[in-house]
Automatic annotation (TrEMBL):
Pathway: Carbohydrate metabolism; tricarboxylic acid cycle; succinate from succinyl-CoA (ligase route): step 1/1. The active site is at 245 (tele-phosphohistidine intermediate). CoA binds at residues 16-19, 42, 94-96. NCBIfam families: PRK05678.1 (NF004230), sucCoAalpha (TIGR01019). GO terms for biological process: tricarboxylic acid cycle. This is Succinate--CoA ligase [ADP-forming] subunit alpha. Heterotetramer of two alpha and two beta subunits. Succinyl-CoA synthetase functions in the citric acid cycle (TCA), coupling the hydrolysis of succinyl-CoA to the synthesis of either ATP or GTP and thus represents the only step of substrate-level phosphorylation in the TCA. The alpha subunit of the enzyme binds the substrates coenzyme A and phosphate, while succinate binding and nucleotide specificity is provided by the beta subunit. Belongs to the succinate/malate CoA ligase alpha subunit family. Residues 3-98 form the CoA-binding domain. SUPFAM superfamilies: NAD(P)-binding Rossmann-fold domains, Succinyl-CoA synthetase domains.
């Protein structure tokens, strides 16, 4: 497993909102150590047994906390992210529709503070049997030795479910987010999987748009020894049309599925033609 362990003590920013309160309950049920929540003006209350504070700084006066998951609406997400990044080791931003300029500032601030940043627009991270900081359905995951990193939440669920149904399991599944600008990228997650003694195989789920997969291919060729299996979504997408995610748009020759597949195969990565093939490819490797 990576990112999450039993020492992760997490605050939920935006804990009293509809999404924040629902997913806080789900994360606690899964065994995640949620120690507090923030909701400005509601300090002193509690929800599902979780104490609410007005700020991260207030939490830190009372409780040991080192991570945050952010459900704050997009117009206020940058402030929440800066608050978390300035004081904690890990920030997971679930929020969608954060303006690109805000995301650029958030990512730069995280790099400056050496804070691990996942997202924005991510389903989060789950280490089966340990906990989750995210919104993924837990019943499709089981502990195992396959690490999954993805730009797409729904494809993460599909592939994880097929791996589970094939009698295998996952070490950690992490969604880097579907926006053009995100914190952790494929390369940084793959490096953590490479160093993780619980991960023997890596699955990388990419999609059209941007150059993240091509950069990952170069990184894999130079740094990764463990087997990597990839899938690229959007093979049939027409140029100039955005497919689902804000980052999934082809501009000219760059960002096409063909260019990504070619780069990955050149780096020694096995590229599946369909998500349903991934579990079988890993079984054959075993």
């Amino acid at each position: 497993m990576i990112i999450l362990d039993k020492n992760t003590k997490c605050a939920v920013q935006g804990v009293t909102g509809k999404q924040g309160s629902f997913h806080t309950e789900q994360m606690i049920k899964y065994g995640t150590n949620i120690v507090a929540g923030t909701s400005p003006g509601k300090g002193g209350q509690e929800i599902d047994g979780v104490p609410i504070y007005n700020s991260i700084a207030e939490i830190k006066e009372d409780v040991d906390v080192n991570a945050s998951i952010i459900f704050v609406p997009a117009p206020f997400a940058k402030d929440a992210a800066f608050e978390a990044i300035s004081q904690l080791d890990l920030a997971v931003i679930i929020t969608e529709h954060i303006p690109v300029h805000d995301a650029m500032e958030i990512v730069a601030y995280a790099e400056k503070n050496d804070t691990t940043l996942i997202g924005p627009n991510t389903p989060g991270v789950i280490s089966p049997g340990v906990g989750k900081l995210g919104i993924m359905p837990t019943h499709i995951f089981r502990p195992g030795n396959i690490g999954i990193v993805s730009r797409s939440g729904t494809l993460t669920y599909e592939v994880a479910s097929q791996i589970t149904n094939a009698g295998m399991g996952q070490s950690t599944c992490l969604g880097i987010g579907g926006d053009p600008v995100v914190g952790m990228n494929f390369s940084s997650v793959l490096q953590r999987f490479e160093e993780d003694e619980n991960t023997d195989f890596m699955v990388m789920i990419g999609e059209i748009g941007g150059t993240a997969e091509e950069k990952a291919a170069t990184f894999i060729a130079e740094n990764i020894k463990k087997p990597v299996i990839a899938y690229i979504a959007g093979v049939t997408a027409p140029p100039g049309k955005r497919m689902g995610h804000a980052g999934a748009i082809i501009d000219g020759e760059s960002g096409t599925a063909a260019s990504k597949i070619k780069a990955l195969e050149s780096a020694g990565v096995t590229v599946a033609k369909r998500p349903s093939e991934i579990a079988g490819i890993i079984k054959d490797m075993i």
